[in-house]
Amino acid sequence: MSGRTEGGAVKRRRLSLALLLAALCFVSPTPAFAHASDRGHVLLLPTGYYVAGGALAVAASFLVLALLPPDSINRLWRRRLPLFAFGDGARTIVSLISFAGFAILVAAGLFGSRDPLSNPLPLTIWTLLWVGLASLQGLFGNLWSWLNPWYGPWRVISHLFGKRRTWRPPPWLGCWPAVALFFAFAWFELIDPAPDDPARLAWAAGFYWLLSFAAMLVFGYRDWSRRGEFLAVFFAMIARFAVVERNEVERNEDGRLSLCWPGAKLSNAAPLSPSGLAFLLLALSSVSFDGLSKTFFWLGLFGINPLEFPGRTAVIGIGTFGLVLTFVLLAAAFILAIVLGQRLAGSEHSLSQAAGLLVWSIVPIALAYHVAHYLTALLVDGQYAVAALSDPFALGWNLFGTADMQIEAGVVAGAGSAWWLWNLQAGVIIAGHMLAVLVAHGLAWRLHPVPARATLSQFPLTVLMIAYTVFGLWLLATPAAG
């Protein structure tokens, strides 16, 4: 008799799941037409259906997961498709090539064209690295561990002078150096009067390379990459979402690649320290402020006419205040959601442990915002980057045969382009939040083995994610100025 009861319960769960999934399909947004373009242009969209559909999709995903047994998600995340194994023998060579390319780009910034759309340095850093590579990291894993311009030179120095004694930073330092450097990077990108100026960027990039390399010699490459080099910290966090996983073999540098589900590597992540939590929240808040700072709403709060934008120099103070405020508000909202969730579930875990673990659910949202927000820049400026790399010093070279390529800016202009671009951006944001709910549930089950308590603990965090979905879609659609 008990077997029949359990079987009936399973059938009811499956039926409920099917009904909810069907309902989720019906809340998908309807088409809307508008003009979409890169920064500095106005974007007007009737977004009511999109906002409602996105909020309902995230809410429905929470309800679906609340009805599923924890083992079903865990079994899904544990599945792997083995591919092949390879070692790290070529890693030094790849990094040395990357360093040589970086040195050429810095020289091009100092001595090449003054036009940011003709000089390969700003196009490579702001478009190919910060946008393109971040997107690839979220798909293929930690490519930056091979492509960074420090590992190869560090290995050469270590080989020439032997292993040097390094100073181990105190544990309390965490990755606060990376937080500080990432804030400086975000400030330079979003608030500095001329972050695209090739010479200015060349000095900044060259100084950062020297600073990081000196720190690696003092603290060790591995320690500084985990604590201070903010690009390594950021890309490593994003890479945990990737569908490609590389397993290291003990006492051997060979590792096997395997395919996994998106976000599966987040399920077994260790809780982050307070500095790691701050870093991940800063990564999301900085991209959010990048969109907010250009809106008519934000500029109107300070009496600035968005149609007569006075330039970055006039809003440095406002921008700095906004960058800090966005981070503080997001951090406060996240901590409040965790505290309320812990109280609803009657949890005995500490706030630092719960927040440090559940903050990993921010990774899909941060990656989704990164891709959606910078998509138009990647599509247009990526073409300029390909052309500029063929003639880095503006001397009439055509190294890769792309110097004279025609730039197709129309890929983000016109009603047809706007329709598919907007749907893609909105879809990425909604999907990122839905995956974040999935990841958060898996992490909550680690904290609360009882499904009911795990579901209760996630309710406030899900409300926050729904609110952030609405905010993200509003940012894509609200009028903005350059």
UniProtKB/TrEMBL annotation:
Claim: Lyase is one of the keywords in the record: no
Keyword S-adenosyl-L-methionine among UniProt keywords: no
Positions of transmembrane segments: 50-68, 89-111, 123-148, 169-188, 200-221, 277-302, 314-339, 351-372, 420-444, 456-477
Record keywords: Membrane, Signal, Transmembrane, Transmembrane helix
Signal peptide extent: 1-34
Protein name in the entry: Fenitrothion hydrolase
Species, as recorded: Mesorhizobium mediterraneum
